[in-house]
Each structure stands twice: as C-alpha cells, then as structure tokens.
Amino acid sequence: MIQNNASLFRRLLGRILDFHILTLVIAVLFFAVNGSFSIAWRDSVTWDIIYTIYLIAIPIVWSGYVVGKRICKTKMKRMDDNEVKLSNTFLREVVGFQIIGFLTLGLAFIISSFMIAFREDKRAIHDIIGGTYVRTSN
C-alpha cells in the first residue's frame, strides 16, 4: 500500500508554482534576448508545448521532482516505487492530463481533484494512466 500520499493542496500548489516559476524564467530569458518584457507568448501553443516538455523531461532527470514538487516536498514515483521513466511521464502528462483533459473539456481535471481528495491512494486519472503516484518526500 502506498504511504505518505501527497494531498490535493500540495499537488495543486506544486503545479501553480511550476507554472509561475517557468513563466518567470522564460520571461527573463525573453527580456535578455529581445530587450523587452512580455508574457504574451504564454497564450500560445508554444507555451503549452514548452510546459508539457518540462513536465515530461525534468522528473526523469531529477528523480521524480520538478521545481514546484521540490518546493512542496512531493515526488512522483512509479507504482512499483522505482523512479519514473519517459513512458510514465509521457502517458501521465500528454495522454492523462492533456488529451483526456481536452476531450472532456476540462471535466477530467474536476474528477481528478475529487479522486485525489477522496481516494485512499490519492491517485488521479493521469496518475492511473501513467502508472504513477505522488508522495510527500523528506
């Protein structure tokens, strides 16, 4: 049985922090290159692609963490307690979060929130599809 499962609040806070920290980093880089500060690019498909690649790649190289998860002291793990692989993060983020979220017009996000809040294992739709769970770390 999974222990120390991350709460809905911690998981949501981690996502919000990731979004804003990555936005800030890219905005500073944009400013360094162009000499003007803008976050208008964040409303494009390019931002969705960058953010999704970040959520797929960083947990693989950083042992289940992204910046927001590290700050919130949560970590993504595979169901067998090993470190996540590309297949896990791709299925989780692209299929479980992006595609299903799009196809259900966002309803999957609401259902996943209830799943995290009320399921004993605190796994959401994207966790089940990706074969992952999120636990609190030390």
From TrEMBL:
| Coiled-coil intervals, chain numbering | none
Q: Does the keyword Cytoplasm apply?
A: no
> What subcellular compartments does it reside in?
Cell membrane
Q: GO cellular component terms?
A: plasma membrane
Query: Where is it mostly found?
Result: membrane
Highest rank taxon of the organism: Bacteria
Q: Which residues form the RDD domain?
A: 6-131
How is it placed in the membrane, per its record? Multi-pass membrane protein
Transmembrane segments annotated in the record for this chain: 12-37, 49-68, 95-118
Q: Does the keyword Membrane apply?
A: yes
Query: Sorted alphabetically, which keywords does the UniProt record give?
Result: Cell membrane, Membrane, Transmembrane, Transmembrane helix
What protein name does the entry list?
RDD family protein
Q: Whose protein is this, by species?
A: Salibacterium salarium
What lineage is this protein's organism placed in?
Bacteria, Bacillati, Bacillota, Bacilli, Bacillales
